[in-house]
Specification:
The structure is a single chain. By secondary structure, the protein is mainly α. Helix content is 70%, strand content 0%.
């Protein structure tokens, strides 16, 4: 019932804020400072309406989705996921409102889906005065407005009606009052009185009887004003009786927690407690301050005394520091020269090593007979190869000569074979 009441308020204040920015004549009106937060209120109303339509069981569980938070479509978190959730809920709400609508898929055209949703929204008689591109992000005031309108149409189609809210009765909390030695709460007193009545009827105090006794005592006192009264009651017994009936005579009435007088009394009590604590604490703080001041004065005097006694040592230390700084400067200058000379020495050493290596290579090449042996071996090899080449040339010449002679003999034989038949033909 509480949800229905909250939803009813949302339905009465629902609607897009950009519609409220125009008056009856269509003139644009400046938005108030709370317009930026209107989408959050609209989203909370939408969530209440979706819960009334059982969207968790019918829509989310079918697509294996998580429930929405209070500001899901009001703040950007994941535009792709929010747009898919927007399309899924819009299709489900349109179907719930009595218009068959195909459930959109993940790879469908977003522009086509938005166009179909806005067409269905216009068919319900709802105005749409914003561009469709506002819904592509999947969040914002326009998305909340579209879903809120579709949810209202779905509630109308299901026959849901808003009822008057039933407010629960609130019970005022009882203020806890600390029990003092001489005061009791009214409940404690009533319990004690009941126990006293059940245990001992003699302890019951009747106010009328007490008033009559007091009146008679006053009359006797007025009749015996001149007489000297002498008490025959023991003081110890009187004190015991006073201690016994004192809790019954002191009554603290139960007060309301919301009474401003209680808060004022508490403030005064706290103020008195702070002042009393401050009086007690200020003495300790003043004493501590005085001790710290004396200690600082002693430290300053000791410091001055030590400075005066060690003045000559301080001067010697300063002169030694100056000499040390001069020695460091000289050392840095000398170390700089040494570093430069070491660099030059390393360069000269490298050049010397390179010259030594070249000299050794040249001396070894001059005294070594290995190159000469290699040359002799090469010449011998060349001679052998020359001889082999000569032999191969001779063989090739002989073969060529034989082929030429053979060709010549063949040619001669062919010529003779061609001449003989002609001679024989002429003889015949």
């Amino acid at each position: 019932m509480a949800e229905e009441a909250g939803g009813g308020v949302g339905s009465r204040r629902g609607g897009a804020s950009w519609e409220r920015d125009r008056d009856e004549e269509g003139v644009t009106v400046e938005r108030g400072p709370g317009a930026a937060y209107h989408m959050f209120v609209l989203m909370e109303d939408l969530l209440d309406k979706l819960k009334l339509l059982s969207y968790e069981e019918e829509a989310l569980r079918r697509h294996n989705m998580r429930p929405l938070c209070r500001h899901y479509f009001a703040l950007p978190t994941n535009p792709g996921e929010q747009f898919f959730m927007f399309c899924t809920l819009a299709a489900w709400l349109i179907t719930k409102a009595g218009h068959p609508f195909e459930q959109p898929q993940e790879y469908d055209d977003p522009n086509a889906i938005i166009s179909n949703v806005l067409s269905e929204l216009r068919s319900f008689g709802r105005p749409v005065d914003f561009p469709p591109s506002k819904l592509k992000a999947g969040y914002g005031e326009q998305a909340c407005y579209v879903l809120d309108c579709l949810a209202e149409e779905a509630l109308k189609y299901t026959g849901f009606s808003w009822k008057r809210p039933a407010y629960p009765t609130e019970e005022l909390e009882e203020e806890e009052i600390t029990e003092d030695d001489a005061e009791l709460t009214l409940n404690k007193l009533e319990e004690d009185v009941v126990e006293e009545e059940s245990d001992n009827e003699e302890n019951f105090i009747d106010l009328n009887v007490l008033k009559a006794q007091t009146y008679r005592l006053d009359m006797n006192d007025s009749a015996k004003q001149e007489e000297i009264l002498q008490s025959t009651t023991d003081a110890a017994e009187w004190n015991l009786e006073v201690e016994r009936v004192l809790p019954q005579l002191k009554v603290t009435v139960r007060t309301d927690n919301k009474d401003w007088r209680i808060h004022v009394d508490q403030m005064h009590q706290h103020k008195d407690g702070i002042e009393s604590s401050l009086k007690e604490t200020r003495g300790y703080l003043d004493k501590l301050h005085n001790e710290i001041s004396r200690t600082l004065e002693k430290i300053n005097s000791r410091e001055k005394y030590i400075n005066n006694q060690l003045e000559h040592l301080v001067q010697e230390y300063r002169s030694a520091q100056a000499l040390l700084s001069e020695a460091k400067e000289k050392y840095q200058e000398g170390s700089g020269g040494v570093t430069e000379r070491i660099r030059v020495l390393s360069e000269i050493t490298e050049v010397l090593e390179r010259v030594k290596q070249e000299t050794e290579e040249k001396g070894s090449s001059m005294t070594d007979g290995a190159p000469l042996v290699k040359i002799k071996q090469a010449l011998t090899k060349l001679k052998q190869e020359t001889i082999q080449m000569d032999i191969q040339i001779g063989v090739m010449e002989h073969t060529l000569l034989q082929s030429k002679l053979k060709e010549k003999s063949n040619m001669t034989r062919d010529m003779h074979a061609a001449v003989i038949p002609e001679a024989t033909v002429g003889a015949y």
